[in-house]
Amino acid sequence: MDLAAILALNVVNGAASLFLLCLGLAIIFGMMRIINLAHGEFVMLGAYAAVISANAGVNIFVAMLVVAPLFVGLVGLVVERCLIRFLYGRLVDSMLATWGLSLLIVGLVTTIFGNTMQGVATPFGGFSIGAYRTSWYTLFLLAVALVMLVLIYAILRYTRFGLIARAVMQNPEMAAVLGVSPARIYMATFSLGAAVTGLAGGVLAPVSGITPVMGGAYVAKAFITVVGGGAAIISGTSSASALFGLVNQLGAYLTTPVYGEVVLFLAAIVLIRLLPQGISGRFFKGTI
Amino acid sequence: MTGELLTVEGLRAGYGRVPILAGVSFAMAEGEFLGILGHNGMGKTTLMRTVMGTIPATAGSIRFGGTDVTRLATHQRSRLGLGLVPQGREIFPTLSVEENLRMGLAAAKREDRSVIDGVLEDFPRLKRLLDRRGGALSGGEQQLLALARCLCARPKLILLDEPTEGIQPSIIEEMIETLQTLRRRWALSMIIVEQNLDFITQLSDRVLSIQKGRITGEVDRERLLSGDVAMTAA
């Protein structure tokens, strides 16, 4: 029973982390068809922003939930204006450019902070379920993931910006005919996606080893989840995160964490073979 | 009619290296309903899209309400008061009818719902469909929605591109009535591009014919009414 509870908690935690990691990517890829290969580096920048500001005396929650998304959102804004805006509709070029960008960011961060591991203490401490110990932070991650899910859904579904963003996603030319500048919406959406990614980096910082190359570990997983989820940002990403989180954690429990990752990728390959349009291409058509 | 609203001179445009418009020139007055008649492939849709700016002009000029808009982006032209009801309607398929109408207010400083309510007065058929997804409507309903959405933006000039294409006759009649009502109520100007003689005759003050990317002249009203229009030789 205790084992089941702790396993369930791990599954939920895995799904929540995965969801946080790929929500920003889903916004950018889903809305603009830009494959941002610097996504992992955005996560890394968020983690650095949180750790460095926390170690400089900023409250850890402010560092994770405010500083990290703001900083990476600004980085996203600059990147969109200087690079991405020339690449809309050019999928391959955008991959190449953002891959170059990822190398640049890794190089810059290494130059400034060195190739050493940074860290910050995990807040909250732990609790026990029977013979097993786990940390309250797991539940905090889950709460952040749920809040982000509701927040982004509400922005897309109920605000004027969300309506215009969805319209631009479906038909940028018609949106322009109605007086919307698609370029401005793309800019805002890209920064929003970057900010959400920065937040993910921030809240994952206390539970990850933070190095300039940490992004590499995230980018493949995040991509496969977004592709597995399909076009719908919220329903697709959350269902794919839940599925892959479950597969990953069960695999890790039954074998080792390394095989857990392997099982995740195998599951993704099978899923994309069966549902080329992703989960939301089949089951949640027309949702957000 | 108070002066010229739109002046197009020597307009050329095309797709890639394929030229479609070979120097189109015409002018229209404020408050006018101008018909442009032509067969498929003569450049009607290209003309509408070039005036709206979704296709760049390669030569010539477009003046709208005293402003040279030839080099302006589509959304800037829209904000100046140009509206397009495109061929194929281009309804946002996963947005509801209401959300599609709200997109008509996208350029406004704030979203004023009373504008939508006002427009819906003239489109009773849409009132019952507000919660439906745009993509789930019939072709005729989509056409009405596209027109209503365009009206929400309060344009000075509406470009109506083949509104009768693939639409059931009862809705075509409804559209003619709606447009005539709108014309009486608001100071609307409109360019109607069509192949449907009946539709264009009932609504237009003046009908031009377009052939091979050029305006070839005005079509005589008597001949329009008698249905005797050899469009190839106009």
From TrEMBL, chain A:
Alphabetic keyword roster: Amino-acid transport, Cell membrane, Membrane, Transmembrane, Transmembrane helix, Transport
Location relative to the cell: Cell membrane
Membrane-protein topology: Multi-pass membrane protein
Family annotation (CDD domains): TM_PBP1_LivH_like (cd06582)
Signal peptide (residue range): none
Pfam families attached to this UniProt entry: BPD_transp_2
Superkingdom assignment: Bacteria
Record flagged with keyword Aminoacyl-tRNA synthetase: no
InterPro entries: ABC_transp_permease, BCAA_transport_permease
Transmembrane spans: 6-27, 60-79, 91-114, 134-156, 222-246, 258-275
Heme keyword on record: no
Family in the record: Belongs to the binding-protein-dependent transport system permease family. LivHM subfamily.
Protein name: Branched-chain amino acid ABC transporter permease
Organism listed in the record: Jiella sonneratiae
Automatic annotation (TrEMBL), chain B:
Alphabetic keyword roster: Amino-acid transport, ATP-binding, Nucleotide-binding, Transport
Keyword hit for Transport: yes
Entries under SUPFAM superfamilies matching the protein: P-loop containing nucleoside triphosphate hydrolases (SSF52540)
Residue span, ABC transporter domain: 6-234
UniProt GO MF annotations: ATP binding
Keyword Transmembrane in annotation: no
Pfam families reported for this sequence: ABC_tran
Protein known as: ABC transporter ATP-binding protein
